[in-house]
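Predict structure. Chain length: 456.
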Amino acid sequence: MTPPRGRCTAKYLTVVEAAVAAAKEAFPGWSERSPQQRAQILNKLADLMEARLEEFAQAESKDQGKTITFARTVDIPRSVYNFRFFASSVLHHTTECSQMDHMGCLNYTIRCPVGVAGLISPWNLPLYLLTWKIAPAIATGNTVVAKPSEMTSVTAWMMCKLMEQAGVPPGVVNIVFGLGPRAGNALVGHPDVPLISFTGSTATARLITERSAPYCKKLSLELGGKNPAVIFADADLDQCIQTTVRSSFSNQGEICLCTSRIYVERSIFSEFLEKFVAAVKKCKTGDPSDPSSNNGALISKEHLQKVRNFIALAKSEGGIVHCGEGVDQLDLPERNANGYFMPATVISGISDGSRVMQEEIFGPVTCIGPFDTEDEVITKANGVRYGLGATVWSQDTGKVHRVAKRLQAGLVWTNCWLVRDLNLPFGGMKNSGVGREGGKDSYHFFTEVKTVTIKY
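Prediction complete.
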C-alpha cells in the first residue's frame, strides 16, 4: 500500500502546486481591476447559475441526499445570492481618515487584497458554503484555490463550467478535487497561500491551525455547534414548536446551526414535550426527490452509524426515545430501502454531562429537558465547549435581551431561527470557531489594512 499512497500524495501535491501557481500568476491583473469591474463578473456568474437553478438543485439533492425541495428553495438560491450580495457589498465599504493639524499630517487607511486565498468547504451545504467563501474572496481582488468536500463536489464542478462564460479570467478561481488529508493538507501547508478560510469540524480545524502556524497565515474557522433552545413559560408555544421542529431537523439536522439541546421551563415541560413530539412525528423522512419529504438521506453509511451510536448511548444511559430511530418505522420506496435514512428523533432524560449532550451529533436528533430558573438554564446552555448559535423563546422583551447577552454563542435568535442579514457577523465562540464572516467581516478578512501618513 505504501508506494501507491506515495504516488497519490505526490499527485495531489502537483495538482495543488499547479493551482496555486495559476492563482498567483492571475493575482496582479485581477487585483488591479476596479471593484465595479469585479462586481460585474460576479453578477454575471449569479445570473448564469440562476438560469440553471433546477439543474443545480437536482444535482445537489442527488449528491448530498438532501430533499430536492431544500436544494431548490435554500441551497441554490442562497448560492446565487452570495455572489450578488458581495458584488454589491464590495462597492460600499469606507476607510478611515484622521487629521493631525498640529503636526501638518493627514492619515488614512486603504485595504488591499491579500493574494491567493485557500478555501475549504464542507459536505452539508456544498455550493451554499463554497460560494460564501469564493464570492468575498474574489470580490475583494484575491484569487483562490478552493477545495470542496470530496463527498459532495458535483455542483462545484458545474459552477466551474460557467466561470469562463461569466468572464472570470483564467487562474482567478481554481477548484481542486481531492481528499482532505491530501489535497487539503497540501493547500493549507503551501507557503504561497497566505490565508485559509475553512468550514468544518473542530478536530480538522486544529490540524489546519498546526499546519499553517509556521507561515503565520490568516485563519477564518467556522466550526461545529451544540446549539441550545431556551424556552420560557411565556413563549408562544405554537410558533415555538413549529420553528423548533425546523431548527432541529432541517437538512436532516446536518447544519451546524441546528438545535440539538432544548431546555423548557418546567411548568410547561410536559405540554411542550407532548406537542413537540406530535409535531415531529408529522415530519416525513423519505425519497429526496419526493416534494412531500421533509428530510432526505444522511451523507454516508458511516455517518448514519455514528448518529445511531449516539442514540444507542443515550438509551444505555437511561434516555427515553419518544419518536424516531427504533420507535417509528420508515416507509421508504423500494429503490430507497438501502439508503442512509433516519427519522427525526427526540430524546429526553439525558444528563448534561453525557456525550450525547456534549458532542456534536450532526444528525436528525435533538434532546430535551426541563429547567427551573433563568440562572440554571444559562449554566446548562453554556455548559458545552461549543458556542455557535442559540434560540430564546419568551414574550418578555427584557428577558430575551438579558438572556441573549449571557449566552455564550456567536448568534442568538429570539422567537425565530435562521433569520440572516448577511451584512452582520456570522461565527462562533469557544470551539465553534475563530473569526467572523459577513459583509464587513469578510471584507476585513480578505484584505490587509494599510495606514498611510501624508506630511503637508
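Summary: The longest helix spans residues 2-32.
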